[in-house]
Design a protein that fits this description.
Number of strands: 16
CATH class of the largest domain: Alpha Beta
Strand content: 15-25%
CATH topology of the largest domain: Aminopeptidase
Helix content: 25-40%
Number of domains: 2
Bound molecules: (2S)-amino(hydroxy)ethanoic acid, manganese (II) ion
CATH superfamily of the largest domain: Zn peptidases
Order of helices and strands: HHEEEHEHHHEHEEEHEEEEHEEHEHEH
Largest sheet: 9 strands, mixed
Shape: globular
Length: about 425
């Protein structure tokens, strides 16, 4: 038997842990609803800490609510190798989005320990705070704060739909996690590897088990607020109305018509559409809606993004409109050297794989700005995701964890930048 670390990856343990995690925030339809910094999210962090304890892994949290499990290295002050993803989910999320990368990172570290490895530098398993952008908008708040792309002050002040800030949510969570030591925000990172489900149909369609992610498409997000005037549905005339709902729907239709392309490459989504007072016999006084705009070509994305405010203003009618851009991330390409490691590890294990870009956003975006970063994909059945029916076969989860293990094995014994 070779002393290949991936030989120590345990498929059953990996799947059992994912099944146990799926019970935290489980929905009746078989998915998960685990909002960022919710009790279920706190339980997930505590569960990770409990799994890490027998391995001598030390849990900690930073001021932005990111969670870490550290495997000590020979040189305690060296920049760590990091691997992980997120534990929060969409409201009707699946059992694998994000959590697979966190649990697979633990599986890889456990395999490396069982293989007798001793890393030169610390290895941090990480769960980034609020990747999904569902409870707090925009998404990826934790990794952006870690990478210095957003200040801690701005991060802590972001509010959810109930008006609670990230700081409020952290304070509410702290009593349950008070035993967990805190660590400073940010810091140098040797390299970051994130394993994640593909959230698309390509790997499954081509009968492959692993994707070597080439990059992430650009993504701009907005919050649009339309101010109208509440009025009686029976007594107010159309001429005098300031109907925020009619204006908002006109904006959405005009945006969709202007922005969508024949190639179906642009991704334009209005996922949230909140009407006030949302009463059958009251003309809407206010509508707040979200915009999620994506495109693999940065210039095209920027050009389309610049059209949003003028189109909204042109369709406001008698209402007022406020367009706020929440995030603007360009398309990115991961470094070849690190992708080579993934390709070589998958080839050595005879795991069928290919390069492919990520249409979905990931925390790796922000780590990419601070250190050599790469991602490993595993297939999504029928490409279904952000959906309670999300599924990845155990054999594919196992394959991805084996590749991750051998890539980390190479990174932890070479102090030179990968
Ligand atoms: O938005 C995204 O692409 C990620 O799944 N949150
Ligand atoms: Mn994700
Ligand atoms: Mn997601």
């Amino acid at each position: 038997m070779t002393n290949r670390a991936s030989d120590f990856v345990n498929a059953e343990r990996l799947n059992d842990r994912l099944a146990e995690m799926a019970r935290l925030g489980a929905t009746a339809a078989g998915g998960v609803d685990r909002p960022a910094l919710s009790p279920a999210d706190g339980d997930a962090q505590r569960l990770m800490a409990a799994w890490g304890a027998p391995l001598g892994l030390t849990p900690s949290r930073d001021p932005a609510g990111n969670f870490f499990l550290r495997w000590a290295g020979l040189h305690a002050d060296a920049a760590p190798v990091m691997s992980g993803s997120h534990l929060d989910s969409q409201p009707t999320g699946g059992k694998y989005d994000g959590v697979y990368g966190v649990v697979a990172a633990l599986e890889a570290v456990q395999a490396l320990i069982d293989a007798g490895r001793q890393p030169d530098m610390p290895v941090d398993i990480v769960a980034w705070m609020n990747e999904e952008g569902s409870r707090f908008a925009p998404g990826m708040l934790g990794s952006a704060a870690f990478a210095g792309a957003r200040s801690l002050e701005d991060t802590l002040a972001v509010t959810d739909a109930e008006g609670a800030t990230v700081a409020d949510a952290l304070a509410a969570l702290a009593p349950g996690l008070v035993t967990m030591p805190t660590r400073a925000l940010g810091g140098a990172v040797h390299a970051y590897i994130e394993a994640h489900i593909e959230q698309g149909p390509v790997l499954e369609r081509e009968g492959l088990q692993v994707g070597v992610v080439t990059g992430i498409q650009g993504k701009h997000t907005y919050r649009v607020t339309v101010h109208g005037e509440a009025a009686h549905a029976g007594t107010s005339t159309r001429a005098e109305r300031k109907d925020a709902l009619l204006a908002a729907t006109a904006m959405v239709q005009a945006l969709a018509a202007e922005i969508h392309d024949a190639q179906d490459c642009v991704k334009f989504t209005v996922g949230r559409f909140d009407v006030t007072p949302s009463a059958p016999s009251v003309v809407a006084s206010r509508v707040v809606f979200s915009i999620d705009l994506r495109h693999p070509d940065t210039e095209t994305l920027r050009t389309l993004s610049d059209r949003i405010e003028p189109i909204c203003t042109a369709h406001r009618g008698p209402c007022a409109v406020e367009v706020v851009r929440l995030s603007a991330a360009d398309s990115l390409t991961f470094p070849h050297a690190l992708r080579e490691h993934i390709d070589r590890a998958a080839t050595a294990l005879a795991i069928p794989h290919r390069d492919l870009p990520s249409a979905a956003g990931h925390d790796a975006r922000y780590l990419h700005a601070t250190c050599p970063t790469a991602m490993i994909f595993v297939p999504s059945r029928d490409g279904i995701t952000h959906n309670e029916a999300e599924y990845t076969a155990p054999a594919d989860l196992y394959a991805g964890a084996r590749v991750l293990t051998d890539v980390l094995d190479r990174l932890i014994t070479s102090a030179k930048t990968p």
